[in-house]
Amino acid sequence: MHDAHADRRTKALLRLLALLLALVPLAATQARAALRCSNDLQIDVCLEADGTCPAFAGTPGPVDSEWANFQHDPQHTGKSALRGPTCGRVLWQTKVRGPVLSQPAVGKPLPGESDGVLYVASAKYPVCGFAPRDGSLLWCSTDNRGKLPDRSAPAIGNDDSIYVGTRDNDMWAMKVPATTPGVAPEILWRQKVCTDGDISTSPVVSPEGLVYMGSDSLSAGTIMAMCPGPERHVKWCHNPVGDGIKNVSPALDPTGTRLYVSAGGRDLVAYVASTGEEKWRIRMEERRNGLRGANYSPVVNPSTGRIYFGGDSGVIAIDPIVDPDTGAESAAVSILATPDKGEILTSPPAIDVANGRIYFGAARGFNGALYAADLATGERAWRIEVPLSQMRNRPPVIDGDGNVYYLGRYSIHGVRPDGTEMFKVDTGDDFQSAPVLARARLYAATRQGKIFAIGGCP
Q: Which of 25, 72, 340, 352 is deepest in the core (most CB within 10 A)?
């Protein structure tokens, strides 16, 4: 009996010791978080913004590549100047550990190559690099892993930097590594939003090199402009924006002087891109959709500056207005195009200015549809049913010939401008992000981490 009591006491002591040991890393993590989130920063997340940037020796702006950030460019048109694939040939297929919930990006080519490196945000890495020739893994780790990147698509800067947001309230800035396989990227800095705000937004890089990031921030919204370069420096910041900023990407006007941010899926705010001064704010429609998966990024016409937004009521057009006498800025709102009754948009549209088209996905319940409409009048050109697909977070993309590519729930599709099908590739796995286009090829990543390269067509 004495031995039995001793065994129980020993087991209890061992359990207590195991609990204490488990709490040590937790306490260390909390201590590190406290160092990065002082009481002052928790009260005012914009405290570090000082309106300036350190001297930057590199070349500012986004990288000149095949697909540098969410929906191709800082206006989020979804339009590439390159020809995409015309057949459904799978060049290669690979897999990354962890889910892929955001659109990939394409950076500079490897030495001696013409195709850019493919970057995919996944798991705690939080970004992996793949060789475009055969899909071989270049690297898929960092020296300081964080939490999941969620819906944040990578954005690539001209100075070999790459930016991505994660669920640990951080935006990561990394130096793209040497081309030697297995060499991890260097972590330049991590910017934390100290009000428990996931960085599920896709960052965008301005021509002057500022990196814009958004955060939900307890449904109040934060928008920050980070300076380019190896130092973590906040140039300007707004909190609260007035509503949560989830899964969207800020967009720049054609001159790079105005930044547009959607908040709560219903408001649009215009800022001076370089200083953060608010110029106007409008309500696009009277509803609130708090779905984590919905993407309400604004899209800007690179020729006219008109802004497009996918909402419950259809494709909304926003026209910036400048008073000729006072210089005061405002905006006018109208409905450009509508889907069938009962369908709503939960992804941004894509625009083809050269061919005068706008493309958007909409869904009712579990079934979706892809629409083509006139960019000026909104008149419908065609509609394609997409069964079992809500089209959420999956905007279409357009190649230089005007061909359109979209993802069903378990399939990759290419259609001609007249709506006739070029190809369909069944994948088995489901998609929760959009494809990207490169030179005569398309990349798409499934929720389960499977990556497809489509191309090699005659």
A: 72
